[in-house]
Amino acid sequence: MPPASSSTLSVSAPAPPKPLHLRRPLIAAAAAALAALLLLAAAYATWRVDSPPAALLARPAAPARFYSFDLVREYPHDPDAFTQGLLYGGNDTLFESTGLYHRSSVRKVELPTGKVLDHHQMDGDMFGEGLTLLRDRLFQVTWLKNDGFIYDRHNFTKRKSFTHKMRDGWGLATDGKVLFGSDGSSKLYQMDPKSFKVMKMVTVKYQDNEVPNINELEYIDGEVWANVWQTDCIARISPEDGQVLSWIFLHELRRNLWNSGNTNIDVLNGIAWDEGNHRLFVTGKLWPKLYEIKIRPVVGPADGSVEKLCPKASLYR
C-alpha cells in the first residue's frame, strides 16, 4: 500500500420466567388431568436426559466485540523501516518486510535489541509488502504487482519468484495449510501455497458493510487479524465468511509516539504472534518502537459504524 497521505453499553438481564398457575380442576375431570400431568412429567424427564441444563451452562461466553490493550513491554525498532509485513520467527527473532522504492527489504531482526541480523535488499523497482512463513519458506508479495518471492528462511540468497491471482499484493498470513492474502480492498483470499490458485475468497464485512483497505495480516487462533490501512484499528476476521468478529483499538500507541516528538512516523502496520508463548507484537511504518501488548475487552457502542469506530487516522499535531 502507498505511504499514508466510550460510550457504555447497558445490558439488561433477561426477565425471570412467569410462575405457572394451575387452575383447580373440576371434580369430574380430576382423573383425566392427573393422567395428563403424568405424561408431561415423563416427557420433561426425557428432555432433561437428552439436553441437560449443565451442558447449556458449559457453553463458552460470546467473545467481546471491542478491545483495548495493556502495554507489556516496548522494544527498539528501526525508524527507517517502512513496515509492511511482520511475523515472529522463534527464539526472540522477527521477520520483517519493508516497503518504499529503493528501500524495500526482507530482514531478520533480533527482538530485544532491534538489530538486523540478516538482510536482503530488493531491486529498486520493487515495493515490498506482506510477508508470512510456511515451514522454512518466507512468502512475500509486492505492491501494484502480481509478483511475489519465496525465500529460504535461513538464507535469503536462496529465493525464487511466483505469480498470484490477487488484484494487488498487500498482506499475507498462513494457518500452516493455505496462504491468506489481501489486496487493499475488502477481499480476503485463500490461496494454495504451491499453485497460488485462489481456493476461496470472502468479503470482509462489519454490520453488513464492507470494510475496505484490509492490509497486513496475521493468523491467530482460527482468526485472521488485519490492520485496516490509515486507521489505528485491527479487525479480527472469521476466515469462513469474512465477518469482523471484533475490533482492537490501538490509537494510544501512535498518539504517544507523536506526542513524544516522533513526527516522522506513518500509520500503524505490523502484527506478529508468538504462538508458543502467547505474545502479541505490533508496530507501524517508520516507528522507532515495537510493542508487546495484551488485549483486554472494553465496552463500546452497540451500533458504531466502521467510520465511527476506526476513522482514518490523520497525523497528530
Question: Can you describe this structure?
Answer:
This protein has 317 residues and is mostly beta strands. It has four helices and 22 strands. It has helices at 30-50, 53-57, 251-259, 306-309, and strands at 66-76, 83-90, 93-98, 105-110, 116-121, 128-134, 137-142, 147-152, 155-163, 171-174, 179-182, 187-191, 198-203, 205-206, 209-210, 214-220, 223-228, 233-237, 244-249, 268-274, 279-284, 289-297. The chain has an eight-stranded mixed sheet. The protein has a four-stranded antiparallel sheet with strand order 2-3-4-5, with no helix packed on it. A hairpin with a 2-residue loop joins strand 16 and strand 17. It is globular. The two termini are 24 Å apart. The relative contact order is 0.16. Mean pLDDT is 84; it is low at 5-62.
How many individual helices?
4
Level of helix content? 10-25%
Tell how many strands the DSSP assignment holds: 22
Low-confidence stretches: 5-62
Pfam families: Glu_cyclase_2 (PF05096)
InterPro entries: QCT (IPR007788)
Protein name: Glutaminyl-peptide cyclotransferase
Organism: Urochloa decumbens
Set out the fold topology.
Elements: H1 30-50, H2 53-57, E1 66-76, E2 83-90, E3 93-98, E4 105-110, E5 116-121, E6 128-134, E7 137-142, E8 147-152, E9 155-163, E10 171-174, E11 179-182, E12 187-191, E13 198-203, E14 205-206, E15 209-210, E16 214-220, E17 223-228, E18 233-237, E19 244-249, H3 251-259, E20 268-274, E21 279-284, E22 289-297, H4 306-309
Parallel strand pairs: 1-19
Antiparallel strand pairs: 1-22, 2-3, 3-4, 4-5, 6-7, 7-8, 8-9, 10-11, 11-12, 12-13, 14-15, 16-17, 17-18, 18-19, 20-21, 21-22
Pfam families: Glu_cyclase_2
Protein name: Glutaminyl-peptide cyclotransferase
